[in-house]
Write a structure and sequence with these properties.
By secondary structure, the protein is α+β, with helices and mostly antiparallel strands. The protein has 2 domains: 66 residues, Ribosomal protein L11/L12, N-terminal domain (Ribosomal protein L11, N-terminal domain), CATH 3.30.1550; 86 residues, Orthogonal Bundle (Arc Repressor Mutant, subunit A). 39% of the residues lie in helices and 18% in strands. The protein has 6 helices and 5 strands. The strands form 2 sheets. Strands 1-2-3 form a 3-stranded antiparallel sheet. A two-stranded parallel ribbon has the order 4-5. α4 crosses α5 and α5 packs antiparallel against α6. The N and C termini lie far apart (43 Å).
Length: 158
């Protein structure tokens, strides 16, 4: 029988204290080893809250760590260095992402996006940018979307 512990930790900064220690202690596992592996797997999300699932075999005490990804909007705000998106995205823009940044966010989200490949995953990220008041390459999302579908940015998706 496997025990599952789900927690939200700051990327790369998990500690044996709250919330991990109290959840893992009764299960008799090597907490420092689990914390080290979580920090290693979440270091790319430094400064963001990351969902983590720890699956523990109650007999052998072996464990598997599955790391979720922060919401797309959180990754975008981190790329921009802003606190939050625009309250009025049609009129107030909070920042501009390069196509490289869009691709980086799409790669971080990986399989949690529905797009069949990186190009379509990037389009999903751009959709989130639209609702946040973020431009891409200095242009609005509809223009960029048309350019991507026309193949103008294909070098970024190779």
């Amino acid at each position: 029988m496997a025990d599952t512990v789900e927690v939200l930790v700051e990327g790369g900064k998990a500690t044996p204290g709250q919330p991990l220690g109290p959840a893992l202690g009764p299960l008799g596992v090597n907490i420092p080893k689990i914390v080290a592996e979580i920090n290693n797997k979440t270091k790319a999300f430094n400064g963001m809250k990351v969902p983590v699932k720890i699956i523990i075999d109650s007999k052998t005490k072996d464990f598997e760590i599955k790391v979720g990804t922060p919401p797309t909007a959180s990754l975008i705000t981190k790329e921009l260095g802003v606190e939050k998106g625009s309250g009025s995205p049609k009129t107030v823009k909070v920042g501009n992402l390069s196509m490289e940044q869009v691709v980086r966010v799409a790669q971080m989200k990986g399989d949690s996006l529905m797009g069949k490949d990186l190009k379509y995953q990037a389009l999903e990220v751009i959709g989130t940018c639209t609702s946040m008041g973020v431009t891409i390459e200095g242009q609005d999302s509809k223009t960029i979307r048309a350019d991507i579908l026309a193949g103008k940015f294909d070098q970024h998706f190779a």
